[in-house]
Amino acid sequence: MSATAILRNAKLIETGNLQKQDLFIKDGLINSIYPSSEKIRFYCNCPSYDLEGKYLFPGIFESHLHGSAGIDFNQIDLERLDQISIYLAGRGVTSFFVSIVSEEEEKLFELLRFYARAAEKYLPGARLAGIHLEGPWISPRRSGAISTANLKTARPETLDRYQQAADGRIRYITVAPEVEGALDLIEKADAEGIVVGIGHTEADYDQGREAIARGAKLATHFGNAMPWPHQRQPGIVGALLESGLQLELIFDGVHVHPVNLRLIAQLVSLDRIIGITDATMARGLPDGDYTLGDMAIRVDKGISYLSDSDVLAGSTLDPIHAVHNAAKILDAEIRDVHPLFSSNPASLFSLNTGEIHTGKKADLLALNQNFKLCDTWVAGRHVFSAML
Question: How far is residue 177's CA from residue 244's CA, in Å, rounded to a whole number?
């Protein structure tokens, strides 16, 4: 569902122009932008919002997310999906992918059919923009917090069956290049417009380069669930850094040390970085015991682990906090790191959002002078206010 609205007296800080602007949103898209000083009259019987000089940013797009607020995306619950949509909007997220970890075949098909239907329905907050499969085509030696019980060789016909069940909603798959059949699968997925992320892998440098040549476009949570380089073996990390691929990074300072995050940002341009949270159902909840797919996890002091293990299991990272963390770790301005969480993933996945330009979806955030979230709009719908 889209809407028509007027936003007045907004500062578009990402453009570097702090002159107040008025935006006319029509049918969910940014129709026109004018300096507030021109006092343009929009002839429209629609809601009007005075931002009183607040900063206006594009909404956050969470492209790698396993759940939040008590819901795990490997579980089917339509009512809870509405709740998480509202929760995400209150945390600055305007669109998201559901990331599904490896499952028993019948359960996986149920999940794909469920989220295909859910993507068609009205959600009251953030928009469900697609499906991410993290497995089953990953290395059992680098599975991390993903169960190895349902991993399999890569066969193009299997992807066809999954995509048919998902009604074409699979937008992103994580693949280990060394898995049998993976290179052909990568080539097929790329030809069909599915973004392939290299991850959960022990691929060497040459295997990584071949996967990139076949069409891989992304590194799934770069630096995690993959071996770091040796001085005589650049490995998969060397192949990824040397390439022009996008790199997912979790800015919690735990998954990748802040020094390494800074070094990566010095080696590659910021437009190659996709900021993610990889959050689980435990986000927004206290320390305790939870699940990720069919794996038991525990959260201790805000850090998520496999139960009875020191293996990290997703995160509890808040998306707004992730943006602030990125700015602090990289010693950058909020406006410089915000695209990592908005326009960078939107561009990679070919979504018409992530920027404040005419013709783009009006997925917008109003932030105060301290960069705290005040309001969220999804396709022009006002879905969150910190004042309510």
Answer: 17
pLDDT at 123 (0 to 100): 94
Give the ranges where 333-373 is alpha helix by DSSP (H).
334-337, 343-348
Q: How far apart are CA 163 and CA 4, in angstroms?
A: 34
The 10s digit of each residue's pLDDT in 324-353 is: 999 999 999 999 999 999 999 999 999 999
Q: What pLDDT, in 10s, does the model give residues 87-140? A: 999 999 999 999 999 999 999 999 999 999 999 888 999 999 999 999 999 999
**pTM of the predicted protein model:** 0.96
Give yes or no for a contact between 375 and 366, defined as CB atoms under 8 angstroms apart.
Answer: yes
Q: What is the DSSP letter of 268?
A: S
Paired sense of beta strands 170-175 and 127-134, if any: parallel
Does 196 share its domain with 264?
A: yes
Residues 381 and 316 placed together within one structural domain of the fold: no
The Cβ of residue 275 has, within 10 Å, a number of other Cβ atoms equal to 28
Query: CA-to-CA distance for 388 and 372, rounded, in angstroms?
Result: 15
The dihedral sign for the CA sequence 369, 348, 326, 97: positive
278 is catalytic: yes
Low-confidence stretches of the chain (pLDDT beneath 50): none
Using CA atoms, how far apart are residues 247 and 265, in angstroms rounded to an integer? 10
Same domain, 82 and 99: yes
Domain count, the chain: 2
Answer yes or no: do 20 and 76 share one domain. no
Residue 279 DSSP code = B
Domain span at 260: 60-348
The pLDDT value recorded for residue 1 is 66
Burial class (CB in 10 A: 0-12, 13-18, 19+), 335: middle
Q: Which residues contact 350 (CB under 8 A, 6 or more apart)?
A: 193
CA–CA distance, 150 with 305 (Å, rounded to integer): 21
Residue with tokens 């949509």: 85
Query: 292 with 314: CB under 8 angstroms?
Result: yes
Choose, from 278, 318, 363, 375, the residue flagged as catalytic: 278
Q: Which two tokens stand for residue 82?
A: 């509405």
At 78 the pLDDT is 83
Measured distance CA(246)–CA(268) in Å, rounded: 9
